[in-house]
Amino acid sequence: MYNKIGRFTVTEILIVVVLIAVLVYAMRPNYVHVSHSAKNACISSLRIIDGAKRAWALEHNKQNTDTPTDSDIQPYMGPLPSGELPACPNDSSQTFDTSYSINSVGTKPTCKIYPTNHILP
Asked: Contact, 15 vs 74, CB < 8 A?
């Protein structure tokens, strides 16, 4: 006297739904961890960019209102793979120019992908 839906009983369908819910719940912490790691990597890149700007300004006697270019700060960024500038992990283009705004020496660099979430403290 089981209610049948197609060839499956209601009990069988409920078991499958519960299993899917448990799997979704188990996967959620991994997604949160990955998202948090990407944010930390982006903020770390912002710190490196800010330090490179300040080193460039000090070495070239620049003011807080001066804005360096990508090529100006690249020598101060430290060893980077294949000489490329960093990109925000959440940037689908994975390029420096689409990821970050360098800004003037007196202003902190910003992330263009998540400007309200990836913030240099």
From this structure: no
Contact between 90 and 104 under an 8 Å Cβ cutoff? The reply is: no
Q: Domain residues of the chain, as ranges?
A: 4-111
pLDDT in tens, 39-76: 999 999 999 999 999 999 999 999 999 999 999 999 99
Which positions ≥6 away from 75 have C-beta within 8 Å?
none
DSSP state of 75: G
The pLDDT, as a whole number, for residue 6 is: 62
Q: CA dihedral defined by 22, 23, 25, 29, rounded to 10 degrees?
A: 150
Tell which phi-psi region holds residue 95, choosing left (phi > 0), alpha (psi between -120 and 50) or beta: beta
The DSSP bridge partners found for residue 101 are 110
Query: What one-letter code names the amino acid at 77?
Result: M
pTM for the model stands at 0.71
From the number of C-beta atoms within 10 Å of its C-beta (0-12, 13-18, 19+), residue 11 rates as exposed
